[in-house]
């Protein structure tokens, strides 16, 4: 069809179609991760961010171009996950700002909105790199602006900008050497291309996607199940299961078994009480009070993609209820929020003074809203947040925008090892400024490494990797690859220890035994007689071994 005007209804269809196209291609996007580790989640993060955007678009009553764009922007910000999701939310924010006050959109309006989207995305990133999603957005917007005076119909317009987006995407390996070496294009750029292509699909008469049916299905997925029956007043001294844990599980590549509710109930029943599991249209929502929330989440990830994870300390909820009745619990001076995955790691950071634990990490990044909610629950004048993952730092920074009235300090930890080293030295009497400065100084001196299994063959920095190999990353850079976990572990540690080192800490994860970790620790102490070696059960998924050297 020959379309010269996009109204609110059509724009809404375009976003739904873009979300569908992104969802269909998310597994492929995940596989574009530069390093062959099983945590490539760009496609998942972008898709979940889009789903959150659709949730707002589906419920808004302002069906104008302005209203739809604004709802999409708000929803994306709340649900943004990982760096790619945060950047996507900023793209939509710029897009929305440019369309403010417009009931309908012409080609020139859309082109200007894309330029605003690109500008806003670049501003959101402290050190923008070319060869990423930013480049693809910028060059797509440039093409849109270049042709807006001569092109009046959207069919021609999208045909041209989709070509520009694909060309920019194909050129990302030439701009970012690490992509070229890995033989992939930028994953975030691919996600953006899927969105632009989805916009075009919504305008095509031969589109096989039934948008109205897809919108209906998506809206049904977002129906909220009430858990008010479980929001009781608990006596904090008699709480058996401390953590109120809620989450959604969305079908991924595998379809839920027909008895998914029974499977979840059988697994979770021994782990807590006040359990509710509801399955509808490709999504399962679970509520449980438990002392082992990470075990619950780890099991759920076997069946699909987690979203809207909330882990709340009911003892703190009890204090809030008392406050609502006038029994005010004074705020602490400093509260600490930690992103953690793995029961052992979680127990360690709790013992060191963490007030709120947000479930998340590799393959399961918490949203901006999740982090902001945790800040509010910390009940403190000043709140320190440890992201513990390079892909969560930007989301944590953006969460500050949702935390008006709170003094939030982000410690840019890229690993939980850095967080633990910092918190060992934590003294709340030092005050917020001195504590923040101390934490940042400590994390800069910590050497951290992790070992996992390669998910594909590749060559990175002249290191040949075969699918199934154990690969070691030191400060998130691939350094070692090999068939034997012990040999890879020893080589990784040899590259981390220096004459200034005094302590090597080993955290063993799922699928790795305590005996293995203790054997590795004994080797370390024998080989490097100037350091001590300690072993802890981290229980972390994805990574067999985590190591820190202080």
Structural write-up:
The protein is α/β, with parallel strands linked by helices. 48% of the residues lie in helices and 18% in strands. Strands 13-12-9-16-14-15 form a 6-stranded mixed β-sheet, with helices on both faces. Strands 2-3-1-4 form a 4-stranded antiparallel β-sheet. A hairpin with a 2-residue loop joins strand 10 (458-460) and strand 11. The N and C termini lie far apart (64 Å).
Features:
550 residues; alpha/beta; 6-stranded mixed β-sheet; 18% strand; globular
Topology:
Blueprint: H1 8-30, H2 42-59, H3 65-79, H4 82-98, H5 107-124, H6 133-147, H7 154-175, H8 177-182, H9 187-203, H10 211-221, E1 243-250, H11 260-268, E2 272-280, E3 283-290, H12 293-300, E4 305-313, H13 314-324, E5 332-340, H14 343-351, E6 356-359, H15 368-377, E7 380-386, H16 393-399, E8 407-410, H17 416-424, H18 432-444, E9 447-453, E10 458-460, E11 463-465, E12 470-474, E13 477-482, H19 485-496, E14 503-508, H20 514-527, E15 532-537, E16 545-549
